[in-house]
Write a sequence for this structure.
C-alpha cells in the first residue's frame, strides 16, 4: 500500500519546527502523552495544530458522564489519564523522548555553520589521492616490486626442483615479475580540526563543568553530523595542560590552579605537530570561568594568541561560564585586546538556557 | 493491496458472514485487508482512505497515532469505510480471536452504513472520489504551488463545519440550485392598497398620511425581498461557493472540502448508534456462535475494554450497545405503548412481560430510521439513566474544575440531546450577503446558551474574509449581550448590537 502520508508527515514536522507556514504557529498546541518504555515513563511531546472553527467555548460547556458520585464530585473530563499517572510513586521518572540526536543536529544545521571554512590541504587540490596498496602481475618496470618478484621466482624454483640451496641463485622469468598497483583514495575536501580546551581547575564548579560539557557536546554532535572526517582533539587544563580522549574530556574531575597559557601552548604544539595551517582549517574552542592565576599569565595568553595561535586559526571561540568564585576577568582582557579581531569570538554562558544562544554566537550563520 | 487473507482468517470470515446473513444483516461485500501496524496507522491517519489529497493534517494525525502506538498507548483494532465494496482493515499480529471480533464488528458497521437512512445520500464510491480529489488537488499544486494551494485548503478546512448538517435529504442538485433569484419579479404587480371612494372624499378616505404609510411599507417589503439571501442560509460553504469571488481552482478546492464534509457528517451524527450496533453484533455473533472455549477469556477482556465505562466520560460503544439491548428487551417483553406507560405500579412494570418478541424487529427498524439525537430522544428513559449511572456535569468556577451537577434523568437527557444537536457545533447562518448595501457579509450565530470561543471565532472570521474579500460580520452573544464582531481586512472590531 502506497500512501502519501510520509510526505504529509514530513510537512507537518516542518511546520512544527517552524520552517514553513509560520502562519500556523499560533494555532499550535503542545500537549504531551505519557508512555512507557521498559521501566521508565517517557514524556512524549505531541504537537497539534488546531485550525480555527466557530465552536463553543470549552469552559462553559458541561456534559454527560457515567459513574459513581454525588453532586459536587469532580470529574476528569479531559481524558488525559496519563497526566495523572505521572509522578505517582517514587522511583518513576520521566524522560524526554522526542527528537533523535541526528534530528537535533539537523535542526542545528539550519542555523549554524562553520564559519570561514576554506578549501585547504591536499584534498582540495586532488579530490582523489593515489595510494599504492596492491600487487599485480603486470605493470610498468618503474613500479616493479623486487622483493615480491624474487619471492615468486623462488617459489617457482622450489616447486619445479630447480632450486639448489648450496648455490642459491634465483633468476626471475617474466611471469615472476610483480608490480605495485595503486588505488585512488578519496581525500576529504576540506581538512578541518577542532580543538577543545577546557578549564577543569578547582574554581570551576560542577555546574560550570556541566555547562561546558553540554555546550561542547552539542558542538560535537552538530559537527559530526554535518562535516565528515573532521579531527577532534581534546585538551584539559588546570595549571598544566594535557591532551585527553573524548571520554576523559567529558568525565574528568580535577582541581587545581589555573594557567590558561598552558592550554594554549599545548594547542600550539598540536597544531605544529599535526596540523600545518596551510593544509588545515583549524577551530579552537576554549571554555573557562575566566579566573586566570595571574595577570602575567593572561598577558602570556594574549601574546600567544596574537603572535602564534590566531594567525593559524580559522576561528577561536572563547566561552566563559559564570562562576561564584572567579573574577571573570579573562573575557574582558580578551575583549580589550581583540575587539577588532574577527577570528576571535567570545561568549558568556550564564546558565544552561544560554547554551543555545552561545552556540549561535559562536557558529551562527551570516556573521 | 492484499486481498487474500490467510486461510484461517478466510475461514473465519466466511463463517461470520454466514452467521451475519442469518441474522438478517444486509451489507455490501466486505473486503478485509491484512496490514501491519504502520500501514493501519497510515490509513487511519488518512481517515480510512489510502488516497487522499496531500495535506499536513494527515501527517499530524499520523504523527500522533505513530507516537501513541510506539509507546503502547493505543492500538487500532478496526478500521472500516463506508464504501461499496466495503473495505475493512485488520491488523497483522492481532490474535485470531481479536480478528474474529473485529470482523463481526465490521459486519455491524457495514450493515449500518448500507441501511441507515442518514447514510442514504452518501457516495458509495467514495474511495474513488477521494482519489479523484487527490488528483485534482495535486494538479492545482503543480500549477499554482504547493504552499498556495495548501494555505487555501487550510482556510476551507477552518470553515468545514459550516454546512447544513440536516440538509442531507435534499438531493445534491437541489442543494446546489439556489433559491435566491426565484422570487425576484413577484412583487411588481402589487400596487397601492386603497379604499374605494368618490373623488371628493378621496382625501378623507385615503388621507395622504395613509398613502405614504402604504408606500413606505411596500418599499420596505421590496427591500426585504431584495435581501440576499432571501432566507438565512445555513450552508455557509455553499453560499461562499456560489457568491464569493473565487478563482476556478479555489472553487474546486472549496467544493471538494465541502463534499467531504457532507460525506463524513452522517458518521458524526450516528456515532453512538453505529458503534452500539456494531458492538451489539460482535457480541451476539461471538458469544453465541464463533467463540471457542479457549478464547473466552481473551474475548471477554477485549470486549469489556471496548465497552468499559470510564468515570466521567460517555463511551459511545457502551451507551449504544446498552440502549440497543434495552430496546430489544422492552420490545420483547412488550414494555411499550399506552398500557405500559399508564401503569403506575413500578414493581409490576419491572415484572412486565407480554412475550411479544418484537425485539429484533424493533432494533432493525431503529437502526434504519434514527440518528443519535432521535435515538436518544425516543428511547432514553428514566430506568435506563439510572441503570447506567448517568449524570450531568458542569464547570464550577469556584473550584475551577468540572463537577457532577445532577442525576435527574430529564436533565441528563436534555444535556445529552443539546450536546448532540447540530453535532455539537454552533449554528451559523448567512443572514445577508449585501450587508449595508456594501457587499459585506453578515453571519448570525443562533445563540442557544453557549458562547463561541472568542479567539477562534475571530480567526475564523479572518478566514471567511479571505474568501469573501469584503468585510465580514458576525452577530453573536457574549455574556448575554448581543455583539457584532467585524473584520474589515485589517482589524477585528467589536460593538454591541
Amino acid at each position: 500500500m502506497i500512501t502519501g502520508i510520509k510526505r504529509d508527515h514530513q510537512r507537518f514536522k516542518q511546520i512544527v519546527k517552524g520552517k514553513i507556514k509560520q502562519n500556523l504557529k499560533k494555532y499550535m498546541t503542545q500537549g504531551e502523552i505519557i508512555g512507557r518504555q521498559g521501566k521508565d515513563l517517557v514524556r512524549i511531546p505531541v504537537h497539534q495544530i488546531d485550525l480555527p472553527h466557530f465552536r463553543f467555548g470549552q469552559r462553559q460547556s458541561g456534559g454527560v458522564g457515567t459513574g459513581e458520585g454525588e453532586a459536587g464530585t469532580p470529574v476528569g473530563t479531559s481524558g488525559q489519564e496519563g497526566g495523572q499517572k505521572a509522578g505517582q510513586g517514587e522511583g518513576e521518572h520521566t524522560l524526554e523522548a522526542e527528537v533523535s540526536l541526528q534530528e537535533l543536529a539537523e535542526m542545528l544545521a539550519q542555523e549554524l555553520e562553520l564559519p570561514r571554512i576554506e578549501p585547504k590541504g591536499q584534498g582540495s587540490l586532488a579530490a582523489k589521492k593515489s595510494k599504492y596498496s596492491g600487487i599485480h602481475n603486470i605493470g610498468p618496470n618503474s613500479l616493479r616490486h623486487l622483493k615480491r618478484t624474487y619471492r615468486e621466482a623462488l617459489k617457482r624454483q622450489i616447486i619445479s626442483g630447480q632450486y639448489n640451496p648450496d648455490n642459491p641463485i634465483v633468476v626471475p622469468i617474466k611471469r615472476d615479475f610483480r608490480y605495485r598497483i595503486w588505488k585512488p583514495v578519496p581525500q576529504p575536501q576540506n581538512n578541518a580540526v577542532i580543538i577543545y580546551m577546557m578549564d577543569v581547575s578547582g574554581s570551576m564548579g560542577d555546574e560550570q563543568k556541566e555547562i561546558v560539557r553540554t555546550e561542547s557536546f552539542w558542538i560535537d554532535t552538530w559537527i559530526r553530523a554535518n562535516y565528515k572526517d573532521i579531527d577532534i582533539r581534546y585538551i584539559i587544563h588546570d595549571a598544566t595542560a594535557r591532551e585527553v580522549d573524548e571520554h576523559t574530556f567529558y568525565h574528568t574531575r580535577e582541581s587545581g590552579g589555573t594557567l590558561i597559557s598552558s592550554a594554549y601552548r599545548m594547542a600550539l604544539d598540536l597544531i605544529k605537530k599535526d596540523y600545518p595551517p596551510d593544509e588545515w582549517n583549524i577551530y579552537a574552542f576554549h571554555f573557562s570561568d575566566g579566573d586566570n592565576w595571574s595577570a602575567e599569565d593572561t598577558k602570556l595568553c594574549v601574546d600567544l594568541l596574537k603572535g602564534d595561535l590566531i594567525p593559524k586559526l580559522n576561528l577561536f571561540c572563547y566561552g566563559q561560564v559564570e562562576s561564584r568564585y572567579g573574577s571573570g576577568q579573562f573575557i574582558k582582557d580578551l575583549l580589550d585586546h581583540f575587539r577588532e579581531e574577527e577570528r576571535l569570538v567570545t561568549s558568556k554562558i550564564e546558565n544552561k538556557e544560554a547554551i543555545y544562544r552561545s552556540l549561535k554566537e559562536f557558529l551562527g550563520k551570516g556573521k | 493491496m492484499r486481498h487474500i487473507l490467510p486461510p484461517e482468517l478466510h475461514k473465519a470470515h466466511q463463517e461470520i458472514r454466514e452467521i451475519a446473513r442469518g441474522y438478517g444483516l444486509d451489507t455490501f461485500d466486505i473486503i478485509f485487508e491484512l496490514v501491519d501496524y504502520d500501514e493501519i496507522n497510515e490509513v487511519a491517519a488518512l481517515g480510512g482512505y489510502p488516497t487522499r489529497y496531500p495535506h499536513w493534517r494527515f501527517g499530524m494525525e499520523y504523527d500522533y497515532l505513530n507516537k501513541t502506538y510506539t509507546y503502547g498507548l493505543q492500538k487500532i483494532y478496526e478500521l472500516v469505510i463506508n464504501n461499496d465494496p466495503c473495505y475493512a482493515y485488520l491488523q497483522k499480529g492481532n490474535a485470531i480471536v481479536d480478528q474474529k471480533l473485529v470482523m463481526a464488528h465490521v459486519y455491524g458497521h457495514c450493515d449500518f452504513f448500507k441501511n441507515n437512512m442518514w447514510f442514504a445520500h452518501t457516495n458509495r464510491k467514495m474511495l474513488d472520489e477521494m482519489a479523484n480529489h487527490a488528483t485534482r488537488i495535486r494538479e492545482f499544486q503543480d500549477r499554482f504551488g504547493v504552499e498556495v494551494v495548501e494555505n487555501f485548503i487550510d482556510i476551507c478546512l477552518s470553515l468545514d463545519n459550516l454546512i447544513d448538517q440536516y440538509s442531507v435529504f435534499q438531493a445534491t442538485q437541489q442543494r446546489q440550485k439556489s433559491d435566491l433569484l426565484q422570487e425576484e419579479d413577484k412583487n411588481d404587480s402589487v400596487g397601492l392598497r386603497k379604499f374605494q371612494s368618490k373623488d371628493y372624499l378621496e382625501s378623507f378616505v385615503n388621507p395622504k398620511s395613509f398613502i405614504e404609510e402604504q408606500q413606505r411599507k411596500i418599499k420596505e417589503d421590496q427591500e426585504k425581498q431584495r435581501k440576499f439571501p432571501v432566507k438565512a442560509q445555513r450552508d455557509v460553504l455553499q453560499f461562499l461557493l456560489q457568491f464569493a469571488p473565487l478563482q476556478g481552482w479555489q472553487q474546486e478546492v472549496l467544493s471538494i472540502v465541502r463534499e467531504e464534509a457532507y460525506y463524513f457528517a452522517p458518521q458524526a451524527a450516528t456515532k453512538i448508534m453505529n458503534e452500539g450496533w456494531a458492538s451489539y453484533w460482535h457480541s451476539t455473533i461471538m458469544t453465541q456462535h464463533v467463540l471457542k472455549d479457549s478464547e473466552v477469556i481473551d474475548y471477554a477482556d477485549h470486549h469489556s475494554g471496548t465497552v468499559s465505562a470510564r468515570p466521567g466520560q460517555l463511551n459511545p460503544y457502551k451507551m449504544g450497545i446498552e440502549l440497543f439491548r434495552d430496546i430489544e428487551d422492552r420490545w420483547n417483553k412488550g414494555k411499550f405503548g399506552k398500557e405500559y406507560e399508564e401503569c403506575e405500579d413500578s414493581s409490576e412494570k419491572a415484572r412486565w412481560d407480554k412475550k411479544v418478541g418484537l425485539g429484533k424487529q424493533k432494533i432493525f427498524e431503529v437502526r434504519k430510521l434514527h440518528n443519535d439525537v432521535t435515538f436518544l430522544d425516543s428511547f432514553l428513559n428514566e430506568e435506563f439513566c439510572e441503570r447506567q449511572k448517568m449524570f450531568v456535569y458542569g464547570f464550577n468556577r469556584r473550584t475551577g474544575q468540572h463537577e457532577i451537577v445532577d442525576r435527574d434523568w430529564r436533565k441528563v437527557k436534555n444535556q445529552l440531546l443539546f450536546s448532540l444537536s447540530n453535532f455539537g457545533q454552533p449554528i451559523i447562518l448567512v443572514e445577508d450577503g449585501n450587508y449595508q448595501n456594501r457587499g459585506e457579509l453578515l453571519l448570525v450565530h443562533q445563540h442557544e446558551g453557549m458562547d463561541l470561543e472568542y479567539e477562534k471565532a475571530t480567526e475564523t472570521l479572518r478566514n471567511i474574509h479571505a474568501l469573501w474579500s469584503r468585510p465580514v460580520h458576525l452577530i453573536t452573544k457574549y455574556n448575554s449581550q448581543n455583539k457584532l464582531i467585524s473584520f474589515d481586512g485589517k482589524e477585528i472590531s467589536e460593538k454591541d448590537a
